[in-house]
Design a protein that fits this description.
The chain is an all-alpha fold. It is built from 17 helices and no strands. Helix 14 packs parallel to helix 17 (432-456).
Length: 464
């Protein structure tokens, strides 16, 4: 009973917020305290992704396809935001590990400022050329003329995505993972409530169709960002930005950008490969694109919590390297990797055995269901390897070594995944199924390569 009571106490501490020093004590407990709020954070993000496409799917295959094509473009925003977050995580976690909270707070503000500037360069062309962007991605005239409002809003309001990622990385890397969880829950609960109201025009709300989904998403995230700023300026967390910190410090910005380039590069390579895959799938018609879009959303339902677990490894690596404990950092990665592989592998078994159930929750069109089932079932075969691999990748990022994952991603996604997808889909006539098998092969290669480089141990010597 005492063991059960301890687990309950640890869960409550993880959710409510902990003052645990992650450079001391049990590593398994440290992984647990960081992972629980990160997993819950990502589960809510997963629920949002599934609920969002559920409501949009009621508008038809072309509306779903528009969301899918737009998301392929928005992944560039995500890659920039994640890359910036990686740099933020590495620097803030290292300063916290060195017991330098004031320097961590100064770094946090410079990261936020950098994110705001980057988002402006995306918003302007996104607003002006949304139809043209959809056209380049293979959208038909109906999708360009009737549904481009979704694309315009999502790209024009990309700043809230950027800030949500960066500020949550600040909280997470400092050890306040429970705050990141609450922020994302607020964003997505508001979004889930507004989605049907704005899409279908329920009650006093206007019927905005697919554009309503974009407005709901942006509103929820915008309110969450306001809450983040409130906590940073007035909260009692490990990181607090004071008036004296609101000064442009180009030396810190330069360091952030230097680290971000590797993080942005690796994510641009990965996400650009997804755009390439979407372009290949689009040659097989809107039904194939819709099935692929729904299948990927269901996959995200499992991948996002898994990414939450892998983020715990990044925080532990950064803080323990800052505390001059590289062996503890390495052990944290092995423990987290096994946990993640077991979790994601278990999810993969369900998707392999019952793929139709998950796809038919969203749409009943036989052609779309067939494509979605193939996507979900085939990609799930690579889940165990990918679960371990993403922890390896995040360990490099947490150490501030963003170059190694960039090289790994380039080799895996551009030299293997894209060419193989084209060959299998076109030359061997496997169509979209060939794309899905190419993903499995690429992710397996990525894991083995990351594991080999991790064991060499050069990441332990990285200075940030």
């Amino acid at each position: 009973m005492s063991r059960i009571r301890q687990i309950k106490n640890d869960i409550w501490e993880a959710i409510s917020g902990t003052t645990q020093d992650f450079t001391k004590g049990s590593i398994r407990r440290a992984v647990f305290l960081l992972s629980v709020p990160m997993v819950l954070e990502m589960i809510m993000e997963s629920i949002f992704a599934v609920v969002d496409i559920y409501f949009v799917s009621r508008l038809g295959a072309e509306a779903v396809a528009t969301v899918g094509l737009t998301e392929s473009i928005v992944t560039i925003v995500y890659s920039l935001a994640v890359g910036l977050s990686m740099a933020t995580t590495a620097l803030v976690a290292r300063r916290i590990g060195e017991k330098k909270p004031k320097e961590a707070s100064r770094t946090a503000f410079q990261a936020i400022l950098t994110g705001i500037v980057i988002s402006l360069f995306i918003a302007i062309p996104g607003i002006l050329f949304s139809k043209d962007i959809l056209g380049l991605m293979g959208a038909n005239e109906t999708m360009q003329n009737e549904y481009s409002g979704y694309t315009k809003i999502m790209l024009g309001a990309n700043g809230v995505i950027m800030l949500l990622f960066v500020i949550n990385a600040i909280f997470r890397s400092s050890g306040d993972a429970a705050i990141s969880m609450r922020v994302l829950w607020i964003a997505n609960i508001i979004n889930i409530i507004l989605d049907p109201l704005l899409i279908f025009g329920i009650g006093p709300f206007p019927e905005l169709g697919v554009a309503g989904a974009a407005i709901a998403t942006t509103t929820g995230r915008g309110i969450a960002v306001i809450y983040q700023f409130y906590l940073l300026m007035n909260g009692k967390q490990r990181i607090r930005i004071r008036i004296s910190d609101i000064i442009v410090r180009f030396s810190i910005i330069k360091q952030i950008i230097k680290l971000s380039l590797g993080g942005i590069g690796q994510n641009l390579i990965a996400t650009a490969s997804w755009i390439g895959l979407m372009r290949i799938v689009s040659t097989f018609g809107s039904d194939a694109v819709a099935g692929y879009t729904i299948g990927i959303r269901v996959i995200l339902f499992s991948l996002l919590p898994s990414w939450g677990i892998s983020n715990a490894a990044a925080t532990l690596v950064g803080q323990n390297l800052g505390a001059k404990q590289p062996d503890r950092a390495e052990k944290s990665v092995w423990i987290t990797g096994v946990i993640n592989a077991v979790f994601l592998g278990s999810m993969g078994i369900f998707f392999i055995l019952f793929p139709s159930f998950f796809i038919q929750l969203f749409i009943q069109d036989p052609a779309v269901v067939k494509s979605g089932v193939a996507c979900l079932q085939i990609i799930s075969f690579g889940f165990i390897m990918y679960g371990f691999g993403m922890v390896m990748i995040q360990s490099f990022n947490g150490a501030g070594d963003t170059l190694t994952p960039t090289i790994i991603n380039f080799l895996s996604f551009w030299l293997i995944e894209i060419p193989l997808a084209w060959i299998l889909a076109d030359t061997f006539g496997m169509k979209q199924d060939g794309v899905y098998w190419a993903i499995v092969v690429a992710e397996t290669f990525m894991t083995f390569l990351a594991l080999w480089l991790f064991r060499k141990g050069k990441w332990k010597e990285n200075k940030v």
